[in-house]
Q: What sequence folds into this?
């Protein structure tokens, strides 16, 4: 039924053809179905050209890719990068801050604490592709197939969570960036003056109340710095993502208007991977060159924008606690 | 010589209430043969004294003599020091503060503390004052408002900050911050206020304000103040204890200590011949 309809449509598409005679006398036939838009460059006035350029750039930002990514826009890649980065930051911050609180406030100095510190520092030096392999093995094949077996059994053998997805990609990157957050948060916790803690304890607050109500707010700007660093590192990462959820073309977005809005199991597109795909995997890399450069620019701009947003938040925090230690 | 000095410094010349000897006053805090150690180093040696109720007791002595250690023993802030231990006992209203059944949190609620360096929290002025109540689980807005106003008025800060209660406490001046810390210390309605050199980081104007405040506060609270400044001890206190090298050398009425100390060491220190 559907196939017949598609065939119908295809034959309709081929039915009307545009015949053009070029200036050198050649005749060209273009099926109208292949025409996306047309314009007459020589007939355009200057403001129209400018408008055209702006529109082209807007289309580049807002449209889906066409012709195996070599034409059209990069919107899904921008959106995928954004969602993945935000999700990663949301996951990494609480975990990193809790770890820092434990290390700085609760752990007794000794072999165990030293061991954990060394492990954290080593984690920061592990190549990112190793995190990708770990994410694939642990999150995708381990946790993912477990989740599938328990919650999505009716869909098996088609995996739901047992394959790469934006959640596993975010978790993998969160794991990769957690040392940055831990180190920054620990430093900022340590820089909260002893007098402030004693003041709180002398008011009859417990240790946890002191940490939650006084130490954490005072350390918040420093923790934000760690958050920014982690975000910057995570947003530009490509290698581990290729293993845990990034695809060349994703027909759906990880965040949309259909319940439950955020679809953590969906594969997604990523600007970094898009650059790689355009520049090195497309059939005509020379023709894709402008796309590669433009995509690179957009990726850098996105990272800068995300960082600026976080820096603004930090500035607000600092103003709120003006005169603090930062 | 110390007599003239004392008269010149003392703003209330007729401090006639101070003549009773320490033994006759009803002590609120009893220190009974208290030894304190930082690791292997002993900081306090057999301290024995009674802090009288609703009076100002000053602890004086050169740096490292143990006066701050004793003060911080009263609300068990020394518990936080790694490797510290103590011998002997301290009683608050007859009950040992080291009694395992007595929670250290409830002990600290009965004693407000003001530190050498003012340490307001990175919160609004209002939240700073009501912090002690908040951590005790009190969240009723009307109660908090009332306590904030009462405490700030008692700390002589209300008129200066009543229009900016929602603003960050870290924007206040040094003297205001210290008075805010005093307001915070009395918001819990404690019996005792412990002050650890509260004016050492303040200019003379701010110091005068704090001293006037101490004079007001002693109507309602027992105050123990550690100070490096002997003039200050002479001005604000009813009782003075002189410490030297971890030992309590002399404890008597302030007037007695400054006019006719019974120990040679005390006299030397007070007249500045110490060294």
A:
């Amino acid at each position: 039924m559907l196939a017949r309809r598609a065939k119908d449509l295809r034959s309709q598409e081929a039915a009307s053809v545009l015949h053009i005679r070029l200036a050198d006398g050649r005749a060209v036939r273009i099926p109208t179905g292949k025409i996306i838009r047309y314009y007459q460059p020589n007939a355009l006035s200057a403001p129209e050209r400018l408008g055209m350029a702006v529109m082209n750039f807007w289309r580049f930002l807002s449209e889906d890719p066409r012709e195996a990514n070599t034409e059209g826009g990069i919107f899904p890649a921008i959106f995928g990068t954004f969602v993945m980065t935000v999700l990663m930051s949301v996951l990494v911050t609480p975990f990193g801050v809790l770890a820092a609180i434990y290390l700085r406030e609760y752990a007794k100095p000794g072999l165990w604490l030293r061991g954990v510190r060394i492990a954290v520092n080593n984690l920061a030096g592990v190549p990112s592709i190793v995190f990708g392999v770990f994410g694939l093995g642990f999150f995708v094949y381990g946790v993912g197939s477990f989740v599938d077996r328990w919650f999505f059994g009716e869909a098996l053998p088609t995996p739901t969570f047992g394959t790469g997805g934006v959640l596993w990609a975010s978790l993998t990157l969160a794991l990769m960036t957690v040392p940055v957050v831990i180190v920054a948060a620990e430093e900022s916790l340590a820089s909260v003056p002893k007098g402030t803690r004693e003041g709180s304890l002398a008011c009859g607050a417990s240790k946890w109340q002191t940490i939650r109500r006084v130490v954490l707010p005072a350390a918040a700007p420093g923790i934000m710095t760690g958050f920014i660093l982690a975000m910057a590192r995570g947003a530009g990462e490509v290698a581990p993502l290729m293993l845990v959820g990034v695809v060349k073309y994703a027909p759906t977005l990880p965040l949309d208007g259909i319940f439950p809005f955020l679809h953590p199991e969906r594969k997604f597109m990523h600007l970094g991977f898009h650059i790689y795909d355009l520049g090195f995997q497309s059939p005509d890399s020379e023709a894709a060159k402008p796309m590669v450069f433009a995509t690179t620019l957009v990726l850098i701009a996105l990272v800068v924008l995300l960082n600026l947003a976080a820096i603004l938040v930090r500035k607000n925090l600092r103003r709120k606690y003006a005169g603090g230690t930062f | 010589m110390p007599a003239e000095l004392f008269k010149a410094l003392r703003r209330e010349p007729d401090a006639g209430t101070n003549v009773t000897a320490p033994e006759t006053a009803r002590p609120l805090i009893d220190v009974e043969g208290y030894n304190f150690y930082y690791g292997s180093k002993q900081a306090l040696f057999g301290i024995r004294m009674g802090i009288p109720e609703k009076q100002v007791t000053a602890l004086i002595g050169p740096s490292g003599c143990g006066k701050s250690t004793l003060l911080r023993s009263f609300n068990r802030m020394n518990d936080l020091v790694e490797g510290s231990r103590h011998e002997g006992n301290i009683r608050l209203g007859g009950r040992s503060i080291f009694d395992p059944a007595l929670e250290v949190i409830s002990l600290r609620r009965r004693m407000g503390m003001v530190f050498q360096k003012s340490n307001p929290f990175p919160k609004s002025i209002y939240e700073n004052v009501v912090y002690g109540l908040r951590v005790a689980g009190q969240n009723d807005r009307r109660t908090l408002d009332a306590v904030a106003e009462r405490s700030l008025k008692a700390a002589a800060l209300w008129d200066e900050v009543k229009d900016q209660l929602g603003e960050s406490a870290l924007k206040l001046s040094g003297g205001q911050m210290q008075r805010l810390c005093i307001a915070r210390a009395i918001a819990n309605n404690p019996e005792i206020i412990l002050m650890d050199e509260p004016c050492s980081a303040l200019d003379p104007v701010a110091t005068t304000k704090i001293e006037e405040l101490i004079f007001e506060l002693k109507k309602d609270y027992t105050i123990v103040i550690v100070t490096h400044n002997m003039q200050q001890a002479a001005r604000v206190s009813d009782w003075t204890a002189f410490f030297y090298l971890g030992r309590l050398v002399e404890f008597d009425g302030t007037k007695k200590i400054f006019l006719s100390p019974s120990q040679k060491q005390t006299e030397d220190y007070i007249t500045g011949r110490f060294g």
In short: Chain B touches chain A at residues 75, 77, 80, 105-106, 108-109, 111-113, 115, 117, 119-123, 131-132, 134-136, 168, 170-171, 181, 184-185, 188 (CB under 8 Å).
